[in-house]
Specification:
It is a single chain. By secondary structure, the chain is of the alpha+beta class. It has a domain of 145 residues: Pnp Oxidase, Chain A, CATH 2.30.110.10. It has 6 helices and 10 strands, in the order E-H-E-E-E-E-H-E-E-E-H-H-E-E-H-H.
Length: 211
């Protein structure tokens, strides 16, 4: 990502929240002279104080990525949406843009044992079934033969770059106008993105102090 100090954050809690709220991630590696990308759900490793995620890949993705032999890049993306310059106060920038939150995270995957992989698969199912009216819980014994077609991973995140671009370079009136347009019914409605803008403004991420 292009570096912009106003949009950058080194707050690990921002990255944790992004991963927790948006667990569908892209896994990218460079193996055998080729770039490889896959998409998988990932959850924070709640048993670790360090920033790490757990997931699984289907075989043969483990060989295609060369997992366990080197570093991979994980890309997490939050709410995002188009911002029209017509929403700014007169005299402001006339350039259209896109508001978003994204984190690029680097780490070296650790291959899990069969039992640990089943535990991760069980947790993944429980996490995504939790709001279903009649949830399906994964029976570990039923999962054992299915799990053999997957490879469980724990990926400690050794470093990250996180960008929270929420109109921080605009005046307060324009920022509020963008939020108002994003919550209004219509083709540009993005209520969750508006909520992220509110949160970024309240937490002062990239916004100049008014003191």
């Amino acid at each position: 990502m292009r570096h912009n100090p106003r949009h950058a954050t080194t707050d690990v809690n921002v990255v944790r929240r992004l991963i927790a709220d948006h667990p569908w991630a892209m896994l990218i590696s460079h193996h055998d002279g080729e770039l490889v990308a896959s998409h998988y759900p990932m959850l924070l490793d709640q048993d670790s104080e360090e920033l790490a995620v757990v997931t699984h890949v289907g075989r043969p993705d483990d060989r295609i990525h060369g997992l366990g032999t080197g570093e991979v890049l994980l890309v997490f993306q939050g709410e995002h949406g188009y911002v029209s310059p017509s929403w700014y106060v007169p005299g402001s920038s006339q350039a259209p843009t896109w508001n978003f939150t994204a984190a690029h995270c680097w780490g070296t995957p650790q291959i899990l044992s069969e039992d640990d992989n089943i535990a991760v698969l069980t947790r993944l199912v429980a996490h995504f079934e939790q709001h279903v009216d009649d949830p399906m819980w994964l029976d570990p014994e039923y999962a054992r033969p299915v799990a053999r077609g997957t490879v469980g991973l724990r990926i400690p995140i050794e470093r990250f770059v996180c960008k929270v671009k929420m109109s921080q370079d605009k005046d307060p009136v324009s920022v509020q106008n963008v939020i108002d347009h994003l919550v209004a019914p219509g083709p540009y409605q993005q209520a969750r993105l508006a909520a992220d803008m509110e949160r970024a403004r309240e937490n002062g991420i990239g916004y100049a102090s008014t003191d």
